[in-house]
Amino acid sequence: MTSPLPASWDAAAAHRLLLAGDERALPELRAILSQLPVTARGQVFVEVSSDSEIEVLEAPGRFTVTWLRRDRGQDLARSVDAWLSEMLPISAFTESTVYAWIASQGPARLLSSN
Q1: Confidence (pLDDT) at 99
Q2: What confidence tens digit (pLDDT) does each residue in 29-72 have?
Q3: Tell me, what's the pLDDT at 91?
Q4: What distances in angstroms separate CA 25 from CA 22, 39, 52, 111, 114, one per listed residue?
Q5: Following DSSP, what letter does each residue of the chain receive, concatenated?
Q6: Number of CB atoms found within 10 A of residue 111's CB
Q7: What pTM was estimated for this model as a whole?
Q8: Integer Cα distance of 44 and 29 in angstroms
Q9: Distance between CA atoms of residues 46 and 20, nearest Å
Q10: 93 Cβ partners below 8 Å, 6+ apart?
Q11: Which sequence ranges are marked TM in the entry (predicted)?
């Protein structure tokens, strides 16, 4: 499977990456994660129905993988919004790049801070 990320995304140059989706996006998440450099840094959110759907998801060492369970009221949109509000660069004096790939309730959305 080819990466669903656009060729213009330079994961090695990004300061942070956000990958998010529900259980239907797991194949794409795996493909993206397998193609990232070992130095990539970021967060993966995966929303599933219950604990029984949680599995091992290989990611670079500087990534955090968080499984969100709908049966416990955990929500992908709230988690993504909270992460973005914390990680998006807000300083006029430093440059940083954040990329986000979000697949939920329709086609994947791509976001970039630059």
Answers
A1: 82
A2: 999 999 898 999 999 999 999 999 999 999 999 999 999 999 99
A3: 64
A4: 6, 23, 17, 17, 25
A5: ---SS-TT--TTT-SEEEEEEEGGGHHHHHHHHHHS-TT-EEEEEEEESSGGG-------TEEEEEEEEGGGT--HHHHHHHHHHHHS---SS----EEEEEESSSS-EEEE--
A6: 13
A7: 0.84
A8: 8
A9: 6
A10: none
A11: none
d(CA 20, CA 91): 25
Place of tokens 């599995």: 55
Q: Which residue has the tokens 């956000």?
A: 18
Tokens of 26: 């797991």
Contact 58, 31 (CB under 8 A): no
- In contact, 45 and 103? CB cutoff 8 Å: no
